[in-house]
Amino acid sequence: RGELKEYMDLLVRNFNKDACERLMCLDTISVGWDGQVYDCDFNQQLGYTLGGLTVFDLDSLDLTKRPIRTDNHCFGCTAGMGSS
């Protein structure tokens, strides 16, 4: 339908750096049916795992010391008041 570019432009124009402090990917993980661990629900849908780790590989997970996989979809959580 040709609306993706317009929608992405809207999200980018409404980026709010203050929303970045409250993102769920900073302290929450998503777990797939097979135990794969992801930064967030969006990354799970895109297949962006946390280095191929599964919940079965983990004794604990320090979420504050790992890089977060980012891409254009992250603007969805950082626009306006944020969605996280």
Structural summary, described in words:
The protein has three helices and three strands. It is of the alpha+beta class. Strands 1-2-3 form a three-stranded antiparallel β-sheet.
Q: What are the SSEs and their pairings?
A:
Elements: H1 4-13, E1 30-31, E2 36-38, H2 41-46, E3 49-54, H3 75-78
Walk across the major sheet and give the strand order.
1-2-3
Q: What structural class results from the helix and strand content?
A: alpha+beta
The percent range for strand residues is 5-15%
Q: Rough shape? A: flat
Order of helices and strands: HEEHEH
**How many angstroms separate the termini?**
27 Å
* Count of runs of 4 or more consecutive helical residues: 3
Average pLDDT reading: 88
Features:
alpha+beta
State the gist of this model.
The chain is an alpha+beta fold. Helix content is 24%, strand content 13%. A hairpin with a 4-residue loop joins strand 1 and strand 2 (36-38).
